[in-house]
From TrEMBL:
Entry's Gene Ontology molecular function annotations: RNA binding; translation initiation factor activity
Region (Disordered): 1-23
InterPro entries, per the entry: NA-bd_OB-fold, RNA-binding_domain_S1_IF1, TIF_eIF-1A, TIF_eIF-1A_CS
Species for this entry: Noccaea caerulescens (Alpine penny-cress)
Biased composition (Basic residues): 1-15
Domain of life: Eukaryota
Protein known as: Eukaryotic translation initiation factor 4C
Ranges of residues in domain S1-like: 22-96
PANTHER family xref list: EIF-1A
Amino acid sequence: MPKNKGKGGKNRKRGKNEADDDKRELIFKEDGQEYAQVLRMLGNGRCDAMCIDGIKRLCHIRGKLHKKVWISAGDIVLVGLRDFQDDKADVILKFMPDEARLLKAYGELPDNVRLNEGIAGGVDEEDEGGVVDDYLEFGDDEISRL
């Protein structure tokens, strides 16, 4: 019978706590990089993101972040732009919520970016009326007819 000489399988890797919960130095964008907000996750390590320069790009999550840093819609990320494909980019870093607030305070992110609402959309749009607004437009007799 073979001896198990390893230290464990994939569950051991999953149990490792490599998350950086302590304060880390704030990283600003360099040449060839851009800030972006994730619009939606597509699966297979990819996501749609709206970059600050106004271009919507298909982003690939690099292997160092894949399955270690969870990225969801509405997160602020740093993407590396590709020289040969303008509509695609690579996610380099995910900013924590407090780091994103600092970036906005420093003026790196524009004022129209929504940070902590978890809404994929990125920029402020005018409210088009919700259920309460629609209810207020009708009178009581009109509601009974509906």
